[in-house]
Amino acid sequence: MRKISIFLTAILGLFSCSNVEVVENKDEAGRLVERFSVNKKTKLKEGMHETFFLGGSKSEESRYKDGVLTGEQIFYFENGQIQEVRNFDESGRFTGAYKSYHETGRLKSEGQYANGSMGGKWKFFYRSGNIKEIVHFRDNVENGPFIEYRENGTISAEGTYQNELEQGLLKIYDEKGELTVQKQCENGICRTVWRSDLSKDSAKKSEKI
Question: Among 4, 76, 82, 178, whose CB has the most other CB atoms within 10 angstroms?
Fold first, then answer.
């Protein structure tokens, strides 16, 4: 029975493979630029899909099911470092974790997708690896609190976005991370309501009196 089972499994494997053919596209110099599999009956992409740089290293790898991009998709720099990692649901929409990287291998951005759109907290980083910005998204649009940082790690600004526009209190900080300006914003139009230098001047005048 064991031999029969193995034999049947082998036959089924051959039958399954016979329904799929591998397609390779090459440039005029004969260099491989793309390789993927298609279902012979439907002519739709099925399984692994790869693209290549002219130097031969892989530039992208992904998977298809019934012609739809699904699962994990990875892009590479020519030096072999990962550039971007995306995830897709069975409908071909962005879903789950997303990450992008600088060519050095350090993280550039990370966040989450739901139903094809950016949502929740996203983080962006300088090439040095230091945090650049933390911002919230809803339906691919900046919505919610945000914090921006200088490359030295000190905070430069914090506030709230409403449909990509500053809304409410916006705080501005100097290079030491000390609060210098406060602005009140409405639909992206901001007016200064407090400045540290004016506050100090007022304090000095009070002392003289």
Answer: 76
Structure tokens at 137: 């998204």
Amino acid at 121: K
Q: What would the 3-class secondary structure string for the chain be?
A: CHHHHHHHHHHHHHHHHHCEEEEEEECCCCCEEEEEEEECCCCCEEEEEEEECCCCCEEEEEEEECCEEEEEEEEECCCCCEEEEEEECCCCCECEEEEEECCCCCEEEEEEEECCEEEEEEEEECCCCCEEEEEEEECCEEEEEEEEECCCCCEEEEEEEECCEECEEEEEECCCCCEEEEEEEECCEEEEEEEHHHHHHHHHHHHHC
Q: Give the pLDDT confidence of 80-90 residue by residue, as tens digits.
A: 999 999 999 99
CB 64 within 8 A of CB 47: yes
Mean pLDDT of the 7-35 span? 74
CA angle 200, 201, 207 (to 5 degrees): 90
Q: How confident is the model at residue 12 (pLDDT cuts 50, 70, 90)?
A: very low
pTM for the whole structure: 0.84
Average pLDDT, the chain: 90
